[in-house]
């Protein structure tokens, strides 16, 4: 865990913005806070510290980059899930639910080297960190785990957060803009290559260039985005049938498709 950078500034409307950066589980997580009165109180700083503790704890327990983390030891068979920290039991139970919801297209037990909940736990940790930031003086907050985002509120009472989904064929461009209410996760191969595993063939597979899933919980959205990226159109129809979750896919031919209520602002 590296030391975070912490900065404050004001946007054009005079609202105070607090920005914190962490490195967690091999990726960068940023926290941005918008306050009601334009000031970062001591209470807000305490809440940011708590959010950081949550991210650090997730890194210590679940990082597969650390040889002696409980998750790495579990993968090597040195300990059982019962001998692991309680968070491991909780996350694996949620992963089992996500596997059932996704009809097996998300399956941490099908990963090479043993069970790997990375596709769920990054979003889970970000969602828990966001929960630590709830306060009456905060009008909105974003926890961004390398593009997978958990949020509440807005920049102010009239302007909702908007985020861009990157064009997988041209990373300097946006494929579309989304109005953010809750969480959104995106999965694909443009940045990390063929890292997605088809649980049914146990081979690296992606049937679309990019898949994004929005919903109330980033852990499940993260898992579903992985499932949709692997399953393609089948995954899109699967999310369409779920309550509270929506999806958008970008095909290898550049075609964009989305579920009926995906919060698309402009393609």
Q: What does this 3D model show about the protein?
A:
The protein is α+β, with helices and mostly antiparallel strands and 267 residues long. The protein is globular and about 55 Å long. The relative contact order is 0.12. The strands form three sheets. It has a nine-stranded antiparallel beta sheet with strand order 1-2-3-4-5-8-11-12-13. The protein has six helices and 14 strands. The chain is 30% helix and 30% strand. Helix 1 (42-62) packs antiparallel against helix 4 (118-131) and helix 5 packs antiparallel against helix 6. A hairpin with a 2-residue loop joins strand 4 (138-145) and strand 5 (148-153).
Q: Could you write a compact summary of the structure shown?
A:
The chain is an alpha+beta fold and 267 residues long.
List the secondary-structure elements in sequence, H or E.
EEEHHHHEEEEEEEEHHEEE
Q: What structural class do you assign from the helix and strand content?
A: alpha+beta
Q: What fraction of the residues are assigned to beta strands by DSSP?
A: 25-35%
Tally of contiguous helical segments:
6
Largest sheet: 9 strands, antiparallel
Quaternary state, please?
single chain
Widest sheet, order of strands: 1-2-3-4-5-8-11-12-13
- Can you tell me the residue ranges where pLDDT is under 50 for at least 5 consecutive residues? 1-14
Which outline best applies? Answer: globular
* Distance N to C terminus: 37 Å
In round numbers, the mean pLDDT is 90
């Amino acid at each position: 865990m590296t030391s975070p950078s912490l900065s404050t500034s004001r946007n054009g409307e005079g609202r105070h913005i607090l920005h914190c950066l962490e490195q967690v589980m091999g990726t960068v997580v940023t926290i941005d806070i918008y306050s009601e009165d334009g000031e970062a109180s001591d209470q807000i700083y305490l809440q940011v510290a708590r959010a950081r503790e949550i991210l650090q704890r997730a890194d210590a327990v679940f990082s597969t980059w650390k040889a002696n983390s409980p998750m790495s030891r579990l993968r090597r068979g040195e300990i059982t899930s019962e001998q692991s920290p309680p968070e491991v039991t909780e996350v694996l139970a949620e992963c089992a639910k996500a596997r059932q919801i996704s009809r097996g297209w998300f399956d941490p037990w099908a990963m090479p080297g043993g069970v790997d909940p990375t596709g769920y736990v990054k979003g889970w940790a970000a969602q828990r960190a966001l929960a630590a930031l709830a306060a009456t003086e905060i009008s909105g907050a974003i926890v961004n785990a390398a593009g997978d985002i958990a949020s509440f509120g807005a920049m102010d009472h009239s302007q909702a957060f908007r985020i861009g989904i990157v064009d997988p064929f041209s990373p300097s461009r946006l494929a579309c803009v989304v109005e953010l209410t809750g969480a959104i996760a995106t999965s694909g191969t443009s940045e990390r290559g063929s890292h997605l595993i088809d649980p049914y063939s146990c081979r690296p597979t992606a049937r679309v260039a990019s898949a994004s899933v929005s919903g109330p919980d980033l852990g499940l959205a993260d898992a579903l985005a992985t499932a949709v990226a692997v399953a393609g159109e089948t995954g899109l129809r699967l999310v369409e049938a779920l309550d509270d979750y929506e999806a958008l896919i970008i095909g290898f031919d550049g075609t964009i498709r989305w579920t009926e209520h995906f919060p698309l602002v402009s393609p």
